[in-house]
Amino acid sequence: MAVHGLRTYGLGRHQQIDDYQYGGSAGMVLMVEPLSNCIEDLKSKRQYDEIIYLTPDGERLNQSLSNRLSLKNNLLLICGHYKGIDERIREQYITLDISIGDYVLSGGELAAAVLVDTIGRLIPGVLNDETSALFDSFQDDLLAPPVYTRPAVFNNWEVPSILLSGNEAAIQDWQYEQSLKRTRERRPDLLSESEF
Ligand code: 6GU
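^ thats the input. predicted complex w/ 6-chloroguanine below
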């Protein structure tokens, strides 16, 4: 992963990258020329599968979108700031708009960090145990079951005995039931009619 500062492509002695918006509303907008020069420079060095703009009006990020993006080779993420970027950049270059949720951040940087984290952990070798992403909450639209580690008893608080049984099939059934129960209680919106 590489981070590129837009200021490098800024205009004039002050390396200007933003300006007042046409129409008179308050707030600065990232200018078309520095962004275009930056994107063209990066595109001349790599072929990008997607050029993504992080924006509250984008498609809502979820696990399935992260899964899809983790299969791509090169992604270019554009972070807006202030009131956003000149619309012509969106029209000319952006192939995908992503929002990380229904709230407003002051810039796209934290959203980009969230996106990079969710994708990065799906790439083989990033997680210690490569299989463990398979059992995450949301990977199958269910929340993850409760987990325990040693000791088996603390303050008389016991680990469910099934987990100590060594019966792998029974443990898997138990974990699946716990996932369903947790999802029903906390996120019923994730369940289809049949599972409910
Ligand atoms: Cl991607 N950007 C900004 N500025 N705010 C957001 C967002 C993105 N996603 C949710 N809120």
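The chain has two domains: 6-120, 137-195.
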